[in-house]
Amino acid sequence: MCMRYERPNVTEMNDWIAIGALATVAVLIPLSMMVVSYLLRPSVPETSKRATYESGEVPTGGTRIRFNIQYYMVALLFLVFDIETVLLFPWAVVYLDAIESDAVSLFQILGPMVVFVAILLVGLGWAWRNGAVQWARSSRQVDANRNRS
Q: Can you give the pTM of this predicted structure?
């Protein structure tokens, strides 16, 4: 009985070679850039280079400063509603075709979108109630917060 050896499919092997070549290039380019920048960088050891700020000014006070949490809340709210916008526009385009095809019901098309927007509105209401969307507080609000404590 003679066993016959079959060669692997040439196109399958070429795909893996291309993937391996791309992975090699993806690793070699950043590594070579780091080596070249390490070799070409100027090396001037100075104590002022190790200072907190390299502007020539002598730093005063500590580096730990308390920032207002409001900056982070505004940034987070911006990200949440920015992602909402990024998701809703393609969703509307895709579901417009589904509505025209009459293959599914309107509830199946709009149900998940309504739930998604409702969750976002609940989050906005919570943020509004906790004062996350108010940038500046009036003197009356500041006095009311002091009286509560």
A: 0.46
